[in-house]
UniProtKB/TrEMBL annotation:
This is Uncharacterized membrane protein YjjB, DUF3815 family. GO terms for biological process: succinate transport. The chain crosses the membrane at residues 45-67, 79-100, 120-139. Keywords: Cell inner membrane, Cell membrane, Membrane, Transmembrane, Transmembrane helix.
Length: 153
């Protein structure tokens, strides 16, 4: 099995088990895991293609937001059921560890740079999900209003 498939499966399992920790219903576990797996695949592809981790994180987070909204409507469940486990593979945990490690050992300039990168990555996750969720909700409202106007005529 290739490295890419292995990473996809690990991201899937990380999101799947995270969903278990949040006590998500059994029938939603697969979909929550799939969200994390696909988000990680998008992230890896974009990092390889562009070399920009923050950009890749943002695009993957936009995917998580859109996926969560679509699946929430289809499965009649809140969007956070998919978005919280879906971002697990994207969370910059090792970057935060590296930041603290560098600062602890007195490498202040490197630590501050790594800290800024960590904060930017976390911000990209938050902004990507926020942007996608709001876009989807506005679009959904516009479509439903348009359909309501047509049915009233």
């Amino acid at each position: 099995m290739g490295d890419t498939m292995r990473e996809f499966l690990l991201a899937f399992l990380g999101s799947f088990t995270g969903a278990i920790l949040f006590n998500i219903e059994r029938y939603n576990l697969f979909w929550a895991g799939l969200c994390g797996g696909i988000a990680w695949a998008i992230y890896k592809f974009l990092v390889l293609f562009s070399g920009r981790a923050i950009y890749a994180t943002f695009i993957a987070a936009v995917f998580v937001g859109l996926y969560s909204e679509v699946m929430a409507r289809r499965l009649k469940t809140p969007a956070y059921v998919f978005s919280l486990p879906g971002i697990y593979p994207l969370v910059p945990g090792i970057m935060a560890f590296d930041t603290i490690n560098l600062l602890t050992f007195g490498k202040l300039e490197e630590g501050i740079n790594k800290g800024i990168e960590t904060a930017a990555t976390a911000g990209a996750i938050a902004f990507g999900i926020l942007l996608a969720s709001n876009f989807y909700q506005v679009l959904d409202k516009l479509i439903s209003e348009t359909l309501n106007k047509k049915t009233k005529k």
